[in-house]
Design brief:
Elements: E1 13-14, E2 23-24, E3 28-32, H1 36-41, E4 52-56, E5 61-63, E6 66-69, E7 77-79, E8 81-87, H2 96-101, E9 103-111, E10 113-114, H3 115-123, H4 129-132, E11 138-140, E12 144-145, H5 146-149, E13 156-161, E14 164-170, H6 178-185, E15 196-198, E16 206-207, E17 213-218, E18 224-229
Parallel strand pairs: 3-15, 5-11, 6-18
Antiparallel strand pairs: 1-2, 3-4, 7-10, 7-16, 8-9, 8-15, 9-11, 9-12, 13-14, 13-17, 17-18
Domain Fumarylacetoacetase-like C-terminal: 28-224
Organism: Devosia nitrariae
Protein name: Isomerase
Length: 232
């Protein structure tokens, strides 16, 4: 084995329901503006010609049930509830049938966002990295296998903060379906097992502060929870 100058980072993994083995995380693709009502609340239109994405590092992953500090560099920290897709087999330049076959399973997730930094970057036509890709910003539950979950349809997706519902929609409200997203991404990337797709958030996003507890649900999946501590 080749020695490294510094310790090699630990590869993040996610639990799988009913399995002893965990799913390694590779890339995290996040879909922007995939619910029309959320795009409207952000003051933008849905691009119906093609989906668009931003990426998070695999080191952004944090498991559901964690307590994390309020992040640095922001005073407007937002939750975004998401339906997450885990890829389970290699796929490249797929049609929608092959794209569906490449899906391993689904999870609930949170795309945590430094909204002030994101909006500042957007106004200056700069990348969103500071607002989106930072430590512990991709929260995820255990994964449920596709065969166990069944068809995606009218499942409810909702989130509460301190027991008060803030986001509430249906998976049928997705502008771009899961097979469409996987097919589209596969024409730009060789998708591999462990790639995750956060499929977008419904309307109702908003700020959270230290002491808040977030809980998100998608019908048929484990909940995702997150508690916020004080800033470091």
């Amino acid at each position: 084995m080749t020695a490294t100058l510094f310790p090699t980072p630990t590869w993040p993994t996610v639990p799988v329901r009913g399995a002893e083995q965990r799913c390694p995380v590779n890339r995290i693709f996040c879909v922007g503006r995939n619910y029309a009502d959320h795009a409207k609340e952000m003051g933008v239109e849905v691009d119906r010609e093609a989906p668009f994405y931003f990426l998070k590092s695999m080191l952004a992953i944090v498991e559901s049930g964690s307590t994390i500090p309020y992040p640095p560099g922001t005073s407007n920290y937002h939750y975004e509830m998401e339906f997450v897709v885990a890829i389970g087999s290699p796929v490249f330049r797929a049609d929608e049938a092959a794209a569906h076959s490449a899906v391993f399973g689904y999870a609930t997730g949170l795309d945590m966002t430094r909204r002030d930094l994101q909006l500042d970057a957007r106004a200056k036509q700069r990348p969103w990295d500071f607002g989106k890709d930072f430590e512990q910003s991709a929260v995820i539950s255990e994964i449920v296998r596709k065969e166990e979950y069944g068809a995606i349809g009218e499942q409810r997706i909702h989130l509460s903060v301190g027991g008060k519902v803030r986001q509430d929609a249906r998976l049928s409200d997705l502008v771009w379906s899961v097979p469409e997203l996987v097919r589209h991404l596969s024409h730009y990337y060789h998708l591999v097992p462990g790639d995750l797709i956060y499929t977008g958030t419904p309307a109702g996003v908003g700020p959270v502060v230290a002491g808040d507890r977030i809980e998100g649900h998608v019908d048929g999946l484990p909940p995702v929870t997150l508690a916020l501590g004080e800033a470091e």
